Amino acid sequence: MSAPASPEPPTETIVRRKSSRTPLYAAVAVVVVIAIVVLVGFGAGWYGKPKSTAPPGACPTGVTLLAAGASFITPIMSKWQTDYNGATGNTISYSPSGAGAGISSLQNAQVDIATTDNPINATTQQAMKGPILTMPITAGALAIVYNLPGVTAPVKLSGPTIADIYLGLITNWNDSRITANNSGFQPGNQAIYPVIRADSAGTTFVLSNFLSEDSPKWNTTVGQGISIAFPHLSGEVGETGNSGVYKHVLATPYTFGYVDLTDVLNKQVQYASILNPAGLYITPNLENSASAVSNMSAKITFPAVAGGNWNNVSLVNSKGTGDYPLVTFSYAFVYQQVQLGYQSSMAKAQAISQFLTWVIGTAGQAVSVPLYYVNLPAAVLALDSAGLGTLTFNGAAIPACG
């Protein structure tokens, strides 16, 4: 008899769980896509931030700044352009179009920086789009030049004599008001042919400032300014830029004009000794110009660089015994709110601050003396530095870089 069959185990229903990884993979994929989109968006500037590959605090490179104005500083600006570009990779494109053109360009936001040899007055300040930073960036001398064949010693001239030449009251080189102070001076009965700046010029301001102090007649009839009403005289010629005046005088006998000192030293044009307040005739050079800048700066109560009124700041007629009487600061002007300038950006704002800081620093000031400009006094450099600290871009301080 066979044994009974064993009972079959109960059937177990196996339920297999579906994998939970599929939704996870999908979620991860979505996050990755979002992250990529966000990163691309920031790089492309979709969220209002400028594209930048530079680490925080780095200086911009490849920025071009536009500047225009005084032809007086053309030699030193040319050197600054080369050296600054080599040090930073940024470029200064400078047009020596004259002080008036430079200021107009800044008013119209066509340049980043304007330069002149004169401080701007309150009326011009009010015509700007916003407050202006007024920065002395170098100093130098103005020379009275002439072309007198056969004359070798510098002709001695006083302020009133120069004024009377430009007023048409002295018309010949052998006038007694010239010969009385120049022993052995025999130019013959030759007419004087005045040469003036045809454009609005800081050098015209400096000359007319000096003549207004020395000649009451000039002060009441012509006065001072970057563009003044010179009397129309026989043979008078107007030239553009200091180089235009220099070249015309050099090429034309019996002419008489005014240019910056760096245009005449070590060159062929003749230039005068000028009577200073101490009663001495001083032939301009770097030493007596620097002495005048130093002595006058020590006596001036300077206004603030940021928004201050520099209209009455003048370096002419320093009273030191050996001081040359025709010296001036050269100024740079920028909008204190940098976004008001030409095609502004934070990178350009940083470059403007960087360039002006470099100019008043050791490297920028070191090139002055070889080009016959005067290094700025320490007090003026400190004032400049403080002013640069007030620059803003869209209400924010401009980050230091370097």
What is the strand and helix layout of this fold?
Elements: H1 21-44, E1 64-69, H2 74-88, E2 91-95, H3 99-107, E3 113-116, H4 122-127, E4 132-146, E5 156-157, H5 159-166, H6 176-179, E6 193-197, H7 202-214, H8 216-221, E7 237-239, H9 241-251, E8 255-260, E9 270-271, E10 273-275, E11 281-282, H10 286-299, E12 327-335, H11 346-359, H12 362-366, H13 378-388, E13 392-393, E14 396-397
Parallel strand pairs: 1-2, 1-3, 5-10, 6-7, 6-8
Antiparallel strand pairs: 3-12, 4-8, 4-9, 4-12, 10-11, 13-14
Helix pairs in contact: 5-7
Care to describe what's here?
By secondary structure, the protein is α/β, with parallel strands linked by helices. The chain folds into two domains: 64-139 and 295-314 and 327-397, Periplasmic binding protein-like II (D-Maltodextrin-Binding Protein, domain 2, 3-Layer(aba) Sandwich), CATH 3.40.190; 142-292, Periplasmic binding protein-like II (D-Maltodextrin-Binding Protein, domain 2, 3-Layer(aba) Sandwich). The protein is built from 13 helices and 14 strands. Strands 1, 2, 3, 4, 6, 7, 8, 9 and 12 form a nine-stranded mixed β-sheet that branches. Strands 5-10-11 form a three-stranded mixed β-sheet. A two-stranded antiparallel sheet has the order 13-14. Mean pLDDT is 85; it is low at 1-56.
